[in-house]
Write a structure and sequence with these properties.
Length: 71
């Protein structure tokens, strides 16, 4: 079976005989997902900063330390 890639619909489209509505997340084949993302009908989901392993995107500690220095 082909590897499924998760995409989020940016507009309504049909996939596998089902209507995928805007904002809905769906798993599609790699080639279908590339086509839909390329045409602007879908986007790859954005991972939240808390899920990142490298620690980037977590500015809350820096912001807190900046606030304590200004007091």
């Amino acid at each position: 079976m082909a590897k499924l890639v998760e995409v989020v619909a940016k507009s309504d489209f049909w996939a596998g005989g089902e209507l995928i509505e805007e904002g809905e997340s769906v798993g599609l084949s790699e080639s279908d997902s590339k086509t839909l993302v390329g045409t602007g009908q879908a986007a790859y989901p954005v991972e939240e900063a808390s899920d990142s392993e490298d620690g980037e995107g977590s500015d809350s500690e820096e912001e807190e330390s900046d606030e304590s220095e200004t007091d």
